Structure formats: C-alpha cells, structure tokens
Amino acid sequence: MLYAFDYDNSLSSFPHFQSGEIINELETIAIDILEMILGDRFRYCPQVPLEIICSRPETFTRLPIELWKFWVSSRVDIALMERGCCASRKAKLVIECQSHWHDRPEVQVRDRKKARLLASVGVPLVYLRQIDLDRRFYRFYTPNGQKEVFYNSITQQGRTELEAFLQQLL
User: Fold this and answer.
1) Which of 86, 110, 121, 151 is buried most deeply by CB count within 10 Å?
2) Is 38 in contact with 79 (CB distance < 8 Å)?
3) CA distance 89 to 24
4) How far apart are CA 50 and CA 66, in angstroms?
5) 91 strand-pairing partners
6) Is 80 exceeded by the pLDDT of residue 75?
7) Secondary structure in 3-state letters for 77-113
8) Is the pLDDT score of 41 beyond 60?
9) DSSP character for 15?
10) DSSP-derived secondary structure letter, 156
C-alpha cells in the first residue's frame, strides 16, 4: 500500500526540521577563488559523491566491504567539470577543503584513501587550507605536499602562481 503525504495535516505531529546549509564557509570561499582564477570555463560542483566520480562498471568484482562503505558514503568538497554543451561531464579536478579536523589520524587515513581512489581514475586532487596566522592567506597543495601555492584573498598576492598551478593540473 502506498502512503500519500498529507499536506493538510498539522505539522505538530511531524518531526522537527530546520533549513540547513548546503555548503560550508570554506567551500564557498574556495568556489569564489576558483571562479575568480579560472573563470566560467568550469562548473564548480559542491559535495559530489565519490562513487559518481570514481564509478565502477557493473561487471567488476565486488569491493571489500570496508572499501565499499567508504566509497558509497564519501563526498568530495568541490569537483570541477568542463562547461559547455558538448563538454565532458567527468570531474577534471577535485578540491578538498582541510580544517583542523583533518589533522586527526583517522581522518588522515580517510583522506589518503580518497586521494588513492581519485588517483586511480586520473582525477587530480588539490587540498586547500586557510592559514591560521593570517586568515587572508590560503594554501593550495597536492596530496604529497610537493607542490604548493599561497594565495592572499585580499591583495591577490599569489594569483598568477595559483592560476599556473591549477592550469598545470587541468
């Protein structure tokens, strides 16, 4: 039997909900910076499920249960996708926003697993972290930490370097 939603029923017996944020503050700032640096060549998609970016054909063998749980429950903060009517709808780059929460060992394990999955499908990953000592600065860096760029959101210091860094990955 199908149950229809009763729009006329009093909400007093309905569980309490509140309007939630779609995206966090650092992700919003990241998208603003990316749009300023890269322009409208890309769509900036927040909170994309990892299983969409790293898809698997049905014919492949099953994943180990722990990897499967991680794969279906994880999201990337921002995925860049080419814009245009005939453009690829696959992710070209992923940005992961890092906070102090990401300093915890168990979270670092999850971050490394996500980085390996993205690398396995050839999608570049960049981490972004706001600098504590001067909150105007943002550090963009690769998972191995070998390449990094510092960008000042007020003075635009590092803009040219950030654009070159991102273009190299795209």
Assistant:
1) 151
2) no
3) 24
4) 15
5) 81
6) yes
7) EEEEEECCCCCCCCEEEEEEEECHHHHCHHHHHHHHH
8) yes
9) P
10) -
For residue 150, give both structure tokens.
């510092």
pTM, entire model:
0.83
Query: What sign has the CA pseudo-torsion 56, 58, 59, 60?
Result: positive
Question: Lowest mean pLDDT: which of 10-19, 37-46, 63-72?
Answer: 10-19
Nearest C-alpha neighbor of 169 from the set 138, 123, 127, 129: 123
Q: Residues 6 or more apart from 139 whose CB is under 8 A from it?
A: 127, 128, 129, 130, 131, 148, 149, 150, 151
- Closest by CA to 114, choosing from 130, 91, 132, is 91
Query: Could you give the C-alpha distances from 99 to 27, 70, 128, 129, in angstroms and in order?
Result: 11, 20, 9, 6
- Alpha carbon distance 29, 17 (integer Å): 27
Query: Residue 12: its pLDDT value, please?
Result: 62
Counting beta carbons within 10 angstroms of the beta carbon of residue 157, is it exposed (0 to 12), middle (13 to 18) or buried (19 or more)?
Answer: middle
pLDDT tens digits, one per residue of 114-166? 999 999 999 999 999 998 888 889 999 999 889 999 999 999 999 999 999 99
